[in-house]
Amino acid sequence: MPISQRTQVGIVGAGPAGLVLSHLLQLEGIESLVIENRSRQYVEERVRAGVLEQGTVDLLTEMGVGQRMQREGLVHYGIELRFNGKGHRIDFKELTGGKGITIYSQHEVVKDLTNARLASGGQIFFEVENVSVHDFTSSNPKIHYRKDSQDYEMSCDFIAGCDGFHGICRPSIPEGILTTYERVYPFGWLGILAEAPPSSDELIYTYHERGFALLSMRTPHISRLYVQCDPDEDIALWPDEKIWQELETRLASDGWKLTKGPILQKGVTGMRSFVVEPMRYGRLFLAGDSAHIVPPTGAKGLNLAVADVRVLARAFKAFYATGRTELLNTYSEVCLRRVWKVQRFSWWMTSMLHRFPGENPFDHRRQLAELDYVTSSRAASQSLAENYVGLPMD
Ligand SMILES: Cc1cc2nc3c(=O)[nH]c(=O)nc-3n(C[C@H](O)[C@H](O)[C@H](O)COP(=O)(O)OP(=O)(O)OC[C@H]3O[C@@H](n4cnc5c(N)ncnc54)[C@H](O)[C@@H]3O)c2cc1C
């Protein structure tokens, strides 16, 4: 027989979406339980995003989990766009009235959130198996799972599907309810994490004849670098020296030197734009990557996940305070407005900065003209800047 549990909001997934939601609910006195199929160590070491929008930083700070981020995060007020071997700075501070971004790894955010949640008596069950969600068109939805060879049935008022792109919540919604919008890009990113001080104080996005390259960083001692590659590139064909050589070629600029160091991790990531609508079915609410994916060029995935659960927490707060369901009913619509603007921006940055198979010299000239325009027109630079630092939260 399964062991019965009861909570107000059952959360599937202890990524940024699930953990931020659980915190925001706790601050409102709303109970939640989080289940996660990976180990705590695995989620706390999983290297992913690293650029936090101003709004994400502000929210984490308001939630009381921002101390280490404030201490260790690197605040940047611009990025460089590099093409034809020359760099052009987009000055966020000047173009957005003082806003910037913070470089702080996603897995550090996850660590801070997990520590704070557990320290305040919150419950996160790691390494659960056989997760399934049920009865979400009733007023008493349930989550089934197995942990340490014991079955559990968690009954709740609502389920938050924060289980990422490969999770089980989205596929549990019956066929015909969701509409899917998708674009798969004909390239991927080969990314490395290297023990090398970053060769630039700010991120450098490069458009080169051989393809896109990005120089970013995680700390003053660790660089994160990427080159555009085939979507099914075999990483085994990329010894460290070849990766450094490719980065040097694409990032080359007069008088500039790439700092190298031991490569700690390397991998290939596919690129996809993906949205499902609506982000809710009955009492099951999808948030973060379970509902949408952006290509990483705009550095938006984590930020969008946080923006979703901010809206969701507000809707739960209103429901538990007054019994009213208006904000729950508009959850999907409110989130999707931001999701689509972020999709547009991420698609645009990706299209501007990558080489596409089958493109001709006209396309190449057009991309260079676009970069020239973006870096020489105040209106165009400002548009990039306000999207990059993050559009205002609804
Ligand atoms: C390899 C990679 C690199 C990335 N790099 C960048 C980047 O450079 N910049 C950027 O902006 N974004 C990047 N992203 C995107 C960004 O990391 C995500 O948008 C962000 O993690 C979304 O947070 P989330 O909480 O919605 O989903 P996730 O972080 O995916 O969290 C979902 C959680 O649910 C758990 N889960 C899954 N299935 C189940 C289940 N059945 N039961 C219980 N738990 C389950 C997962 O283990 C995971 O912990 C990257 C993503 C990947 C995959």
Characterize the structure shown:
The chain has 13 helices and 21 strands. It is of the alpha/beta class and 394 residues long. The strands form 4 sheets. The protein has an 8-stranded mixed beta sheet with strand order 7-6-15-16-17-14-18-21. A hairpin with a 7-residue loop joins strand 10 (129-134) and strand 11 (142-147). The radius of gyration is 22 Å and the shape is globular. Flavin-adenine dinucleotide binds at residues 12-18, 35-38, 43, 48-49, 106, 131, 162-164, 167-168, 269, 288-289, 296, 299-302, 305.
Topology (SSEs and partners):
Elements: E1 3-6, E2 9-12, H1 16-27, E3 32-35, H2 40-45, E4 51-52, H3 54-62, H4 67-72, E5 74-76, E6 78-83, E7 86-91, H5 92-96, E8 101-103, H6 106-119, E9 123-125, E10 129-134, E11 142-147, E12 150-155, E13 158-161, H7 169-172, E14 179-194, E15 204-207, E16 213-219, E17 222-229, H8 240-251, E18 263-277, E19 280-281, E20 284-286, E21 292-293, H9 301-322, H10 326-329, H11 331-353, H12 361-376, H13 378-389
Parallel strand pairs: 1-12, 2-3, 2-13, 3-9, 6-15, 13-20
Antiparallel strand pairs: 4-8, 5-8, 6-7, 10-11, 11-12, 14-17, 14-18, 15-16, 16-17, 18-21, 19-20
Helix pairs in contact: 1-6, 1-9, 9-11, 12-13
Brief rundown of the structure:
The protein is of the alpha/beta class.
What ligand molecules are bound, each kind once? flavin-adenine dinucleotide
What fraction, in percent, of the residue positions are helical? 25-40%
Alpha-carbon distance between the two ends: 44 Å
- Secondary structure class reads alpha/beta
Sheet with most strands: strand arrangement: 7-6-15-16-17-14-18-21
Radius of gyration: 22 Å
Number of helices: 13
Rough shape? globular
Count of beta strands = 21
**Into which percentage range does the β-strand content fall?**
25-35%
Q: How does the major sheet shape up?
A: 8 strands, mixed
Uncertain runs are: none
Task: Give average pLDDT, whole number.
Answer: 97
